[in-house]
Amino acid sequence: MITLELTYEKSHLFMHTSNEKWLVDTGAPSSIAIKTDLSFGQHGIDRCFEVTTNYMGLSIPELTELVGVEFDGLLGTDILNEFDILWDIGAGTMQFSESEMDINSLGLVGNELEIGNIMGVPTLNVTSQQQTRTMFFDTGASYCYLLRFSEPAPPQSLEIQDFLPGYGTFTTKLIQTMFEIDQISYPLQTGELPSLIGMSLSLAGAEGIIGNEIMTNRRIGYFPRRSSILIEQSEDADRLI
Predict the structure, then answer these.
(1) Which of 164, 144, 120 is nearest to 212 (CA)?
(2) Whole-angstrom distance, CA of residue 86 vs CA of residue 77
(3) Domain 112-239 has what CATH class?
(4) CA 229 → CA 44, 223, 232, distances in Å?
(5) 1-34 pLDDT tens trace
(6) Is there a contact between 221 and 84 (Cβ–Cβ < 8 Å)?
(7) Which terminus of the chain, N or C, has less C-beta within 10 A?
(8) Where are the domains positioned within the chain?
(9) CA atoms of 25 and 7, how far apart (whole Å)
(10) Other C-beta atoms within 10 Å of 96: how many?
(11) For residue 160, what are the β-bridge partners?
């Protein structure tokens, strides 16, 4: 197992190797970089991955301008799904393992939940607004998104601009929405997707996006090779009865 530095900047996750900085994005099935490889050889894993320089029409310089942070590459699920991973924003660490992680030795509290896979991107079964939905688990998304709100966002709601590769930038209002995962309730800032993006997600079999806000106060174990994820439960977690 190797441990690399993880930073949380402008609501995005970044993994740091000895001389490079990578945006961590489970919502992207392909990794890209300024140069065309990522090597873990200096960090205890003898693996080197070839990557492209363009994802859905975007290069790293264009992505850094959109994100507002300079970085060297985007780490997608073509690489992430080769490992067991533990994210800990609080400790500033991201752990990789080629072998199966032991959640007991790591002290993780919670249940492993089954995840799906749509075109390499993980999905979770989530309940919100009294509906059970299949939603992408997207560490590249700063916020959660639904195809539509059950009620319009109040006029005083915060309006933000965001982007999705392949669709460009869009504007939406955020409202705090309760999401239930494994009988735990999570209040998360949520926007409404433009109809074109929402239609594309729906055709792919998803009804929204769970963004990385859910990761900011807890550790997340991601185990794609056995199709599971663990969202650590805190002592004061709002468990539904």
Answers:
(1) 144
(2) 15
(3) mainly beta
(4) 24, 6, 10
(5) 899 999 999 999 999 988 899 999 999 999 999 8
(6) yes
(7) C
(8) 2-97, 112-239
(9) 13
(10) 22
(11) 172
Alpha-carbon torsion (77, 79, 80, 82), positive or negative: positive
Residue from 197, 129, 207, 138 nearest 168 by CA: 197
Q: Give the C-alpha separation, 58 to 47, whole Å.
A: 26
> Whole-angstrom Cα distance, residue 132 to residue 126?
6
* Strand-pair category, 48-50 with 37-39: antiparallel
Query: Residue written as tokens 């991973």?
Result: 85
For tokens 């309760």, name the residue.
Answer: 178
Contacts of 186 (CB under 8 A, 6+ apart): 178, 179, 180, 214, 238
**Helices and strands in the chain: count of H runs, count of E runs:** 3, 21
Question: pTM of the predicted model, to two decimals?
Answer: 0.91
